[in-house]
Amino acid sequence: MTSPDAARLKALDRDHYMHPFTDFKALGDEGSRLITAAHGVYIEDDEGRQILDAMAGLWCVNLGYGRQELVGAATRQLQQLPYYNSFFKTTHPPAAELADTLCGLAPGHINRVFFTGSGSEANDTVLRMVRRYWALKGQPEKQWIIARDNAYHGSTVAGMSLGGMAPMQAQGGPCVPGIAHIRQPYWFDEGREMSPEAFGKVCAEALEARIQALGPDKVAAFIAEPVQGAGGAIIPPESYWPAIKDVLSRYDILLVVDEVICGFGRLGEWFGSVHYDLEPDLMPIAKGLSSGYLPIGGVLVGDRVARTLIDDGGEFHHGFTYSGHPVCAAVALENLRLMKSESVVEQVRQVTGPYLAKRWKALERHPLIGEARSLGLIGALEIVADKATGARFDKSLKAGETCRDICFELGLVMRCCAWPR
Ligand code: PXG
Fold this sequence. Notes:
about 425 residues; alpha/beta; Aspartate Aminotransferase, domain 1; Aspartate Aminotransferase, domain 2; 2 domains; 4-stranded mixed sheet; 4-stranded parallel sheet; about 40% helix; globular; binds 3-[O-phosphonopyridoxyl]--amino-benzoic acid
């Protein structure tokens, strides 16, 4: 790309494009980076610089860039049937095939999927399905959904309400009512005075305490990611999920496991739920489903909820123009076929995940790193001012943002998670 054209595009961007999660004025002053191509694990900017994309786009390009098989699948489907809906008793081959393939990959009790265009729409669908389920069960008072502080479940009003990001909720509220938040299992930040084992149990006790406070007959569901992604790659202590499962089994509460980031190999299994031996009633998915090549998401629905919605529900008044979009579904199908045939998930579990873990842990020797943790292909470094006490830098120094910017300059995309809480 020639420089004058790059300058022109940057000016168009500055003048007309309102970017997501962006301080518009600051970006206008600084200007955007222009990314023009990508191959394998590298993105390329307008000056031809190769940058290692350790973020896989936004946690989504699971197969990497430039996979011509995905381009081919999209092209063929665009020629054959570029669009049709599945609203009025119609379907099309890619949606039906993808539904079957997904259910074959999901844990055995999951045999249905509802398609959406994104992870946020998937979580909107979750909210509606959960409340609809309890209404059909004759318990419409079961409305509360318990989520976690600092969680990210999307940016629609329902997604933002389920999420626990204070800065998001401070804008454009009020949030959807009937959603409560409990503490996250963030041992490094909140639990270092005890063992990770003990802390995991304390966090599960917080769930039980909240259920008791809200009234067990009023709590519909608990939603969480297996490993909290956008919140800071928060890998729970090993004791956490067994203790959470134990609490949920003592009350009649649905488990929603948000697999938008953890699904499709990131933790070395097809789903994070498999890694942690969870039996979710609902699993929102997106991102890696199509390796991000086209937008598609969905909710995998366990038999318990599906049976009630199917047998007792009548029409479910919910859906999107692009639910099960044929081209997106065709790309997702091809993506899953490639992941299977190339044993990508096994490779993460047996080779790349353990290798990353070994090399990652070595970074803990650095004076600024308080903890280096990883699981599968998710890793986090805790940046500290004082290694002995774990004390943070003053927020005004923007330590995380500075590291991120330096990495970018040196040719590495990574993510700074410095959410004000
Ligand atoms: N659930 C989870 C767990 C997510 O991470 C969504 C739902 C929403 O998906 P859509 O497709 O509507 O964006 C997400 C999205 C970041 C970042 O900076 C993470 C996401 C989105 C944007 C930025 O880490 N995750």
